[in-house]
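Shapes recur. One chain:

:::
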Amino acid sequence: MSKFTWLTTLRGPALTQEQLERRDCLSLPQGLSEVSLRQQRMIVVDLETSGLNTSRDQVLSIGAVAIEDGGIDLGSQFECTLQRDQLVLKESVLIHGIAPSALAAGTEPAEALLDFMEFVGDSPLLAFHAPFDRRMLARALKTSLGYTLRHPFLDLAEVAPMLCPHAKVGRGGLDDWVEHFGLQVQQRHNAAADALATAELALILFSRARRQEMDNLLALDRRLNVWRRRRNAYSL
């Protein structure tokens, strides 16, 4: 197969023919459905980025783990550092600890993102503070692949307080919920480790959801919409 570069659009990313074919074969996403939480395959994702500006900063690494058959599939994990050898790192390196040498030796972004989306398949995505991860991932996919992200995201930072309204959880960050439920986390601010911690939190929350008669992602999302409206009404 030819390896010469094709230009997908006049101003789009330069991709090889093989990359174009892989992109065009990516699975169409499932919508949120009434498949039970025990049967639904979900991908928990965490990103490490060069900063918090979703318009300018870049994805540095991706960590993800699959939840299948009601549990975390430790044999189905994804971890990748993206090649960013021209990036000038800011103070964020003190948090994520990804050295310039690791970024220089990382996987070319288009390849890394294709690998990740092939791992995701048609599954919905979960994240803690999902709007940030979704915006960062969507921009990276558009910039590097000319691909529009349409997979639904569920935000566990909203699900947790909705299902546990009486929990006294400080700022409500991932560390706070990990401490609240007594989870053992070996490492933080590493994409793969954070994805695993988030997946463990998700399983606890899904158990709570089932006890509250929400046994699928569609029911959870509907309840979240009601919860948001009530919260916004109280804040007025």
Summary: The chain has one domain: 35-235.
